[in-house]
Amino acid sequence: GNSVTQMEGPVTLSEEAFLTINCTYTATGYPSLFWYVQYPGEGLQLLLKATKADDKGSNKGFEATYRKETTSFHLEKGSVQVSDSAVYFCALRNYGGSQGNLIFGKGTKLSVKP
Amino acid sequence: DGGITQSPKYLFRKEGQNVTLSCEQNLNHDAMYWYRQDPGQGLRLIYYSQIVNDFQKGDIAEGYSVSREKKESFPLTVTSAQKNPTAFYLCASSIDRGVTEAFFGQGTRLTVV
Description:
The complex is a heterodimer.
Chain A: E1 3-6, E2 11-14, E3 19-21, E4 23-26, E5 32-38, E6 44-50, E7 56-59, E8 62-65, E9 75-77, E10 86-93, E11 103-104, E12 108-113
Parallel strand pairs in A: 2-12
Antiparallel strand pairs in A: 1-4, 3-9, 5-6, 5-10, 7-8, 8-9, 10-11, 10-12
Chain B: E1 4-7, E2 10-13, E3 19-25, E4 31-37, E5 43-49, E6 56-57, E7 64-66, E8 76-78, E9 87-94, E10 102-104, E11 108-112
Parallel strand pairs in B: 2-11
Antiparallel strand pairs in B: 1-3, 3-8, 4-5, 4-9, 5-6, 7-8, 9-10, 9-11
């Protein structure tokens, strides 16, 4: 079946530090991959996406590359800000039937200190 | 503005009562979803619907019910059979059941008192 595994947090960084949150997946075929962000007390917002191998999704300084050979979609940002403090979820969608549902990792909480 | 609206933002329920959470979207999306979020457990799928008048159970459907009488609306009822209903509930929609992204509402926090 489909599954997503992401690094457990919490992750605490100083402002302007480099961020990596690891995400690996298991799926048949060619799923689409997503990163969502959740700020306290709010719903999820789509941060970036990639729909095929070697695609790079990017938004607000965050990047992630769809690596089919390593089944990974790691989230990176070169210089984090206090406002990036949130919970980040890696997710995938696959074709057909119940596979069309979004499958989420458990989330990684990021805290950025001034 | 197009989007997904969940209401209310906070909801309190006495034990033994049924409560209904509202979810409305004006994105003209076919598919809609309900997720439950508990601390440290990520998101778990309760129910999903691909088209009007059709819906399917997700991973944790017991104690919940839904309806899909209109394309834009997908209300969730938390029944008294749900033993531990206190959680954050998120509604989402997507254009279809393929590989496109889903969009989320702002959530409803349900507390049993």
